[in-house]
């Protein structure tokens, strides 16, 4: 099998330069997803009528449709929405420079937000009910009980799930290359445009993704271990 | 000219005609992964010999890189690889490359699901099997497999649903499944009304996912029907 090894070596720094951008994209999408999941979790846990049913229906839809379809839908539909918003509150629609980055971000945030809602719910429910009752019994307000008693414990429970979702999101972010986001995979494809060494470019990209994922997995495992010391006194039930 | 809802109504039956192909993209890797996943799992819970490290490397690669890149690597790399042996597969359908890469990808994930289920098994169960004179195969078929499958089933369900939704990526190498057809219709309309075609595709994928969900809920119920009796 003949590969252009010289090109592969020289391609590594080129593709690697796109890694911060890719990680930034993944991190932005992740933050958005956590925020949405948190809001959705509040809607469901607080039993807000109508909003709760709406959130559940939306989550079911988001989980039942491929991310690829959602990405393309955002890619095509958001410009129409923005066009409709033209002139609203002084917003001027500019069709020349659509922000593909932001379009893809919306799709990722909503898709992963739907999955992470389950994490929010399950980790909240995993905290013993007595903990909140104890907080009320010493005179804490609902907010204090949540912020000081429930959230820290729920977070510790949620960490393995949350870190897993980040790795998945990072890997899935390669799909964004198909909707004009110039991330790692798109950079690798572009870098091979001059010499038809497409396979070599993809091998380099695969190597980088693999390395980052393995490192992230190891790092997160270490973090999880560190968190164990907060777990030993939790009720096991 | 067409209106959006007309295009939706027009695209839906055309896309539905490609459901069997999407299901094929889904079913072949699922079945292959049951065997290959068990095999990898069997290797990885055993002694740490060369085979163990090879299997671990395989799983690490296919879990640690995006599925999209794996599809590209198979599509562009495999013909080059087998060309060394004088075999020409350049004319193969893109679908075959997609299925091959997805088989490897999905087997890795399934093997991990099986492995964690095996590790969660009570080892006393296996010892009890040996103590009443079961051989290795009997032990596996009568004791390990039914229990491990029950533990792995919720995990497996999520993976299968992910697999189904992952088939929507096959169009990037030119495979003609539901999504491929959707892209084809979009290009036939010169880039207008994509949203309606994609919505039709979304409806189809959603219905298949719901069906899959129901199937697995039924299986979960069936596999845990002895729960509480044998505990």
Shape, principal axes of CA atoms of chain B: flat
Alpha carbon gyration radius of chain A? 22 Å
Biggest chain-to-chain interface with counts? A-B, 36 and 36 residues
User: Per DSSP, what share of the residues of chain B sits in E-state strands of 2 or more residues?
Assistant: under 5%
Integer count of domains of chain A: 1
User: Count of DSSP helices of chain B?
Assistant: 9
CATH superfamily membership of chain A: MetI-like
Low-confidence stretches of chain A: none
Fraction of residues in H or I helices of chain B = over 70%
Please, how many helices of chain A?
A: 9
Sheet having the most strands of chain A = none
Structure report:
The complex is a heterodimer of chains A (237) and B (231). By secondary structure, chain A is mainly α. Chain A has one domain: MetI-like fold (Orthogonal Bundle), CATH 1.10.3720.10. Chain A is 76% helix and 0% strand. In chain A, helix 2 (19-45) runs antiparallel to helix 3 (51-64), helix 4 (67-84) crosses helix 5 and helix 8 packs antiparallel against helix 9. Chain B has one domain: MetI-like fold (Orthogonal Bundle), CATH 1.10.3720. Chain B is 77% helix and 0% strand. Chain B has helices at residues 4-16, 19-44, 50-64, 67-83, 94-120, 123-131, 136-166, 178-188, 194-223. The N and C termini of chain B lie far apart (66 Å). The mean pLDDT of chain B is 89. Chains A and B meet through helix 3, helix 4 and helix 9 of A and helix 3, helix 4, helix 7 and helix 9 of B.
């Amino acid at each position: 099998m003949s590969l252009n090894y010289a090109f592969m070596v020289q391609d590594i720094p080129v593709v690697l330069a796109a890694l911060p951008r890719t990680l930034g994209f993944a991190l932005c999408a992740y933050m958005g997803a956590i925020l949405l999941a948190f809001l959705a979790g509040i809607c469901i846990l607080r039993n807000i009528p109508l909003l709760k049913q709406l959130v559940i229906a939306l989550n079911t839809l988001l989980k039942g449709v491929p991310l690829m379809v959602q990405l393309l839908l955002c890619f095509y539909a958001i410009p129409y929405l923005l066009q409709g918003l033209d002139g609203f509150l002084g917003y001027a629609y500019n069709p020349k420079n659509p922000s593909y980055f932001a379009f893809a971000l919306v799709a990722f945030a909503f898709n992963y937000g739907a999955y992470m809602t389950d994490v929010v719910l399950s980790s909240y429910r995993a905290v013993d009910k007595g903990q909140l009752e104890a907080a009320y019994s010493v005179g804490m307000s609902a907010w204090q009980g949540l912020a000081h008693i429930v959230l820290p414990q729920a977070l510790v429970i949620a960490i393995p799930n949350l870190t897993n979702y980040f790795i998945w999101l990072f890997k899935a972010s390669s799909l964004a290359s198909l909707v004009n986001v110039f991330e790692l995979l798109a950079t690798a494809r572009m870098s091979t445009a001059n010499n038809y060494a497409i396979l070599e470019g993809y091998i380099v990209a695969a190597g980088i993704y693999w390395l980052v994922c393995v490192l992230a997995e190891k790092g997160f495992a270490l973090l999880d271990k560190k968190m164990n010391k907060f777990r030993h006194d939790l009720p096991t039930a | 000219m067409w209106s959006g809802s007309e295009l939706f109504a027009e695209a839906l039956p055309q896309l539905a005609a490609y459901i069997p192909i999407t299901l094929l993209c889904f079913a072949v890797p699922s079945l292959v992964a049951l065997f290959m996943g068990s095999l990898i799992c069997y290797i990885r819970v055993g002694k740490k010999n060369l085979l163990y490290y090879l299997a671990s490397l395989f799983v690490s690669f296919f879990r640690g890189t995006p599925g999209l890149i794996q599809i590209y690597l198979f599509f562009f790399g495999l013909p080059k690889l087998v060309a060394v042996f004088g075999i020409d597969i350049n004319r193969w359908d893109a679908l075959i490359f997609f299925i091959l890469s997805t088989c490897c990808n999905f087997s890795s994930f399934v093997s991990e699901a099986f492995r964690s289920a095996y590790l969660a098994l009570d080892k006393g169960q296996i010892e009890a099997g040996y103590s009443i004179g079961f051989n290795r195969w009997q032990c596996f078929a009568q004791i390990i497999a039914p229990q491990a499958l029950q533990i792995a089933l919720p995990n497996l369900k999520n993976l299968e649903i992910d697999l189904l939704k992952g088939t929507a990526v096959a169009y990037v190498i030119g495979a003609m499944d539901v999504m491929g057809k959707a892209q084809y219709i979009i290009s036939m309309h010169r880039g207008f009304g994509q949203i309606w075609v994609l919505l039709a595709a979304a409806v189809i994928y959603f219905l298949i996912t719901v069906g899959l969900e129901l199937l697995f809920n039924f299986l979960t119920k069936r596999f845990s029907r002895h729960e509480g009796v044998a505990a």
